Amino acid sequence: MKILVAVCTRQRRLQLRECLSSFAAMTSVPGVELEVAVIENDDGEYSKAEVSTTSQTGDISVEYYLQREIGIPFARNMAIDIALGKSVDWLGFVDDDERIDPNWLSAMMEAAKRFDADVLTGPVAFTYETSRPHWYDGDLDTPRRTGDVLKTAATNNTLIRRSVFAPDGMAIRFREQMRFSGGEDSEYFYRVSDRGASIRWVADAVVYEKVIEPRLTKRSQLARQQRISANNVSIHRRRFGRWASIRRYLPKVALNTVKASILALAAALTLPASRKDSERLVYSALKALSASYGILQGVAGKTPQAYLQVDTVDR
User: What keywords were assigned to this record (predicted)?
Assistant: First the structure.
């Protein structure tokens, strides 16, 4: 069995180096040939040297590719083309700021044997560059068990069977019109499941992501909430039509507004006793309002272009 894992990267050389080094510690699986393709999505070969130093990570071959057309869907579609050219059985995606657990491959292959799945996806465990702010409430995943069936997934920890993207199969590719909006991976996997393919959860196939300090600001988190809400509406509209998305999401604007008002009042009442608790409540209120604003953007057919710039710690 042949597996290609794609790591799409842009302006994250140090994080990419850590990501690639984690493959060296991965437990091999008999009968499985694993390769890694690093696809740099930039105007030049800024990370090629990092790949050259790890071109052979243990028994795993690492190859470098450059996609000059800026936008992550273009890089992911290049990964599909590379996978087709190599005639692999599975195409995987992990992010360039992640480290892969040593048992990741064995957990994925065990799940591939147990379940008739077209997509396998697993959890992301978060670590932090600095201590988490007291108001931060992110990264709370829904508890799932191995084998649970999902409607969508993300490309931060995923294996896709060849039949999903091959021309003689479903021939599903990433939507390049969503080049800077984010959410194109969720949209992709919704199309996969809507076509009748099976997406299964693999609880033991873990990757680890270090959350860098710039992401742990209120401004960053509120912008993220706005973007996610806008993308959710946009994806629902593509799947079910404009009016269906309006009926589903517009009432949430009113509910979020009421929620924000209640939280703001609670924050004012809590302030004399605890400034930190009050600040948490204020943040929750702002988060509800950001979600409402994102919904209105999505209903209007506008989505934030959040990935015009990359949050990075190095060049």
Answer: Glycosyltransferase, Transferase
The pair of structure tokens assigned to 22 is 């984690």
Asked whether the predicted pLDDT for residue 7 surpasses 60, the reply is yes
Strand partners, 127: 210
Question: By C-alpha distance, which of 68, 98, 95, 83 is closest to 33?
Answer: 83
Average pLDDT over residues 202-208: 97
Q: Please state the pTM of the whole predicted model.
A: 0.92
- Quote the pLDDT of residue 51: 87
Distance between CA atoms of residues 218 and 225, nearest Å: 11
Q: Which residues contact 58 (CB under 8 A, 6 or more apart)?
A: 23, 24, 25, 26, 28
If residue 265 lies in a helix (H) or strand (E), which one and from where to where?
A: helix 242-270
Backbone angles phi, psi at 286, to 5 degrees: -65, -35
DSSP sequence for 189-243: HHHHHHTT--EEE-TT--EEEEE-GGGGSHHHHHHHHHHHHHHHHHHHHHHH-HH
pLDDT of 315 reads 42
Helix (H) or strand (E) holding 143: none
Taking only Cα atoms into account, the Rg of the chain, rounded to an integer number of angstroms, comes to: 20
- Rounded CA-CA distance 27/247 in Å is 48
The pLDDT value recorded for residue 58 is: 64
User: What end-to-end distance do the CA atoms of the chain give, in Å?
Assistant: 36
d(CA 275, CA 281): 10
The Cα–Cα gap between 10 and 28 comes to: 28
